[in-house]
Amino acid sequence: MAPLTIQQATKSFGGLQVLHGIDIDMNDGEFVVLVGPSGCGKSTLLRLIAGLEDITTGEIRIDGKGVSRLHPKDRDIAMVFQSYALYPHMTVAENMGFSLRMRGESAEVQRRKVEDAANILDLGPLLDRYPRQLSGGQRQRVAMGRAIVRDPKVFLFDEPLSNLDAKLRVQMRSEIRSLHKALKTTIVYVTHDQIEAMTMADKIVVMRGGHVEQIGSPMTLYDAPANVFVAGFIGSPAMNLLTGRIGADGRSFELAGGGTIRFDAPLGAAAGREVILGIRPEDVTLAEDGSPATIKLIEPTGADLHVNLDVSGTEVTAVFHERLSIEEGQAVALAVPAERVHLFDPETEARIAGD
Amino acid sequence: MSAQSHPGRQRTTWLIFIGLCLFTFVNLMPLLWAVLTSLKDPRDAFTIPPTLIFEPTLKYHIEVWTENDFVFYLMNSLIVSAGTVFISVPAGSLAAYAISRIPRRSAGPILSALFTIRMFPHMLLAIPFFVMGTFLDMIDTYPLLILALVAINQPFTIWLMHGFFLEIPRDLDEAAAIDGCSNWQAFRIVILPLAKPGMTVAALFSLLLSYNEFLFALVLTGTDTKTLPVAIAAFGGEDISSWSLSAAGAIGIMLPIVVVMLLLQRHLVRGLTAGAVKG
């Protein structure tokens, strides 16, 4: 258990800079998820923390101690790889106890610690098997076991669930979360899946193009995304981002493509100002006195209805939790509470705090 | 559809089978000829048409193993081969591992350079080696021949092992580093055991090359270190009456290699097919 601080970290490969001055503070025992699209630098940042890549400039501190120039083995970290990286010629027990062996622990200590970790992860009956004899989920658990056995200051997870099928992924997600609750160790977890980020994290770091776009709790990022990128990235289905201007009355939004959406209260930006308006699909409701729209497509998921609405040529996605009697082509009226609307500046793409 | 295509497929399989049998037969002909000649009296060995029914004799096999210093030359060959394998494979593996772990941009030119060395005619290398050997007063010593064979063998060993190391994910090196291994420990404890099938293949190829090598052995050895291929060549010459002896010598030279091949067959097949199927 230890806090982890990254200060002004940059990384360049030759002339290509992939991380641009990253600053992150991770508290002791916090579950921090680095999330972003492919190529955003999240895995590189994790590898910098692990010591698998050399930091170009900046500093990484674990438990207050600068580790930027230390060998991975001296950083007191454990890492779970996307490919699990289990040693194929070693049994599960040997895999899990390998770091202890390298540390020169006695056979008795190795056995006890491996058995303890195996009990936590329900791996007891598999200790004598080889990785090739295990299923994907079991391999994943062994990889976690190998990390737990070390009792490190920080756990690093590099997209550990991406090789698992959807059902197992959900199961392993809760297992990792429970594990974190039990061990209370600082975790840095990399994923490109925002659902994973939302469900597991205490703190999410959204990255793009080697920059941090926003750091905050899952609900902070959901309720108050700092910019258009975070707004579009967090949430599924993605937030509707509509271009246009605030109406003369301050309570309506004139879509760039034509048409108007009316709201029940002022939108919090000056009348006539050009903005990007963000509406979460789940904030859209149908109301008799709402703005006119036509239903283009209905996608029932079982629990919800995903509906694509056409508002004067602009597509708006809505999610309804209730079972509605609607059909494609039907004319409806949509309503969105003004306090649920997000406004962004079209130039800077930053959130507008309210004029 | 499968019922219609089945007879056609079967016919193709048979044609391929017959073709491969013919190919194998043609390839084995010299060996068969050597075996028969070694069992024949020289008078029977050169009758036209060749006789298949003759009175077999082990006289020449016994003569090869008991006279003509065959065992002495065999020992020379084994010393040179073992020396070559024990230097070439570890050194080649280390080089190959290093090349497999550097960026492809840098590895490419190194591998191309090695390939060029491999394409170099050995005859052109034999002369400088002879000059250097004379200068260093090492002609007719084991180290000179072993070093020369390591030099010509190394590019192939590195190429072969490079392929094997590339198939071992880098994540394993990194996991080992995080688990507390130095680079050397990661190589020795984690990577090397996984490369064992590849090393077996590399060792066998290295053994075959050094055991059968003729040109360097002819140029660089003398009475003390002459190896079997050079010695056997002297058994025959133009004297037809010695050809049965020469053939028996050829069979004798093959036997150690056949034994090694049979012992390592399992590893050899695994090594040659490694990476063919994703595990």
Automatic annotation (TrEMBL), chain A:
GO terms for cellular component: ATP-binding cassette (ABC) transporter complex, substrate-binding subunit-containing. GO terms for molecular function: ABC-type transporter activity; ATP binding; ATP hydrolysis activity. Keywords: ATP-binding, Nucleotide-binding, Transport. GO terms for biological process: carbohydrate transport. SUPFAM superfamilies: MOP-like, P-loop containing nucleoside triphosphate hydrolases. Belongs to the ABC transporter superfamily. This is ABC transporter, ATP-binding protein.
UniProtKB/TrEMBL annotation, chain B:
The chain crosses the membrane at residues 12-36, 70-99, 111-136, 142-161, 198-220, 240-264. It is found in: Cell membrane. It is a multi-pass membrane protein. GO terms for cellular component: plasma membrane. Residues 74-264 form the ABC transmembrane type-1 domain. InterPro entries: BP-dep_ABC_trans_perm (IPR050901), MetI-like (IPR000515), MetI-like_sf (IPR035906). Gene3D superfamilies: MetI-like. This is Binding protein-protein-dependent transport system inner membrane component. The keyword Transport applies. It comes from Salipiger mucosus DSM 16094. GO terms for biological process: transmembrane transport. PROSITE patterns: ABC_TM1. Belongs to the binding-protein-dependent transport system permease family. Keywords: Cell membrane, Membrane, Transmembrane, Transmembrane helix, Transport. It comes from the Bacteria.
